[in-house]
Amino acid sequence: MPELPEVETIARSLNHAADRVFNHPGSQNYRSGVIGSTxxxxxxxxxxxxxxxxxxxxxxxxxGQSIHEVVRRGKFIQFKLNDGFMICHLRMSGDIRVEPDxxxxxxxxxxxxxxxxxxxxxxxxxxxxxxxxxxxxxxxTVFDALGPEPFSSELTPPRxxxxxxxxxxxxxxxxxxxxxxxxxxxxxxxxxxxxxRIHPLQRSDTLSMEDADQLLKSIREVLxxxxxxxxxxxxxxxxxxxxxxxxxxxxxxxxxCLTCGFPIERIVHGQRxxxxxxxxxxxx
Length: 284
Prior knowledge:
Helix content: 10-25%
Mean pLDDT: 92
Low-confidence stretches: 22-31
Structural class: alpha+beta
Radius of gyration: 20 Å
Shape: elongated
CATH class of the largest domain: Alpha Beta
Order of helices and strands: HEEEEHEEEEEEEHHHHHEE
CATH superfamily of the largest domain: MutM-like, N-terminal
């Protein structure tokens, strides 16, 4: 599943003016951004992709609207329209591409196609069919359960410590809980915990103020690095990033820790593969 850096990378690529034209290898020129694009029509290939309203109403309501801004909230992508907001969650395998609007080039797993008046289109491709779109007046109706953003100025070490002590859970599963903190998934949680030298099974209510301070710094550092590298490209979901070449623990089972040389271990916790260094990340 794309995590915060991958979703941020996609949102930033879409948040360019539609008159910025780039060369696409192996294809004709296409518009990478969608700001200022006006939707003339919408095709739904998989109706369950639309979470709200129904597919027919969704198409009717987006037609004629222009896109004014694209931002990320947690793992969601939010499009500001003339009237309301279109929100997308990529889930396990969703991806978005902007390309010339050619009727003969629809791909097998394309679920939604937004046709723009300028001759381009936005396509949502989703092999596993878990991705969802919403069209709402107030985005908070979709985001209401989300925890704070990792980069929020209101998220201070004391506040994080208070949040950690309210939940008596393993720190790995807690950090991946989107109601606790928005945006982290398996990759960046493993990397942040290694940088903070915290064992993934450590209970959240046993962490100290010093731990909370280091954890918050580590989360922000690995996320910034991931964004700077356009995310990680490790399967068909992720594209164009190279953060996978800089993993310290994720998918490095049996390889030496880059900090101490001890072999990286992998355990299954909360039904997720978890990678850590048993020497750097000792459980208290």
